[in-house]
Amino acid sequence: AQRVTQPEKLLSVFKGAPVELKCNYSYSGSPELFWYVQYSRQRLQLLLRHISRESIKGFTADLNKGETSFHLKKPFAQEEDSAMYYCAPHNNNDMRFGAGTRLTVKP
Amino acid sequence: EPEVTQTPSHQVTQMGQEVILRCVPISNHLYFYWYRQILGQKVEFLVSFYNNEISEKSEIFDDQFSVERPDGSNFTLKIRSTKLEDSAMYFCASSDPGGYQPQHFGDGTRLSIL
Fold it and tell me: B57 CA to chain A: closest CA distance, Å?
């Protein structure tokens, strides 16, 4: 069965500290990996995807196929990064979300 | 920038009634999706739709649910004989063709079953 695990429901860091949001997945085939973000009172939106290998708003994510992980990282968190983050493997037309991690960046 | 729009933003319905949630995907997108988020829980995939038919559906999407693209712009989710546990936020999304494209989400419809 397809499974996505984000072990931390809540994560709180101080501004300027590094942050890592964990994601592990168990998926058939070779899914494409995405991170979506939902800021307060805004819609879900794409943050980044593995295939692009981009850094968006200072975030990067490394795919580790051996560990089936796709952890999201940022070296220096900012207060505006406070949001709900969802890891989402996508296989064919089936995309499953993790439970989400609520990141709070304190001043 | 084009957006996915959903109406209504909030729907209140008596238990047992039918409800139709409406979505207007981004105009050149060809893949359409519905998701559900029960309060305090994660976003759950319901169904994907391409070329006028369902391409994938989850175990949640049973005979109570149906989707339709009645015209060239709307994409609807119908829930028959609603139950209290259908109360949730329902999100529509659409994506470009071409495999593993990111999905663009609407603001959601909050469905409250009384």
Answer: 8
Q: What is the CATH number of the domain that holds A75?
A: 2.60.40.10
Q: What is the pairing mode between strands B109-113 and A69-74?
A: unpaired
CATH architecture of B5-113: Sandwich (2.60)
DSSP secondary structure letters along B59-106: TT--TTEEEE--SSS-EEEEE-S--GGG-EEEEEEEE-SSSSPPPEE-
Domain boundary assignment for chain B: 5-113
Q: What is the pLDDT of residues A32-85, one digit of tens each?
A: 899 999 998 888 899 998 877 777 889 999 888 888 899 999 999 999 999 999
Query: Which residues are within 8 A (CB) of A53 and not within 5 positions of it... i.e. 6 or more apart?
Result: none
Parent domain of A51: 3-106
Quote the tokens at residue A65. Answer: 């196929």
Cβ–Cβ of B106/A43 closer than 8 Å?
yes
Q: Under an 8 A CB cutoff, do B45 and A97 touch? A: yes
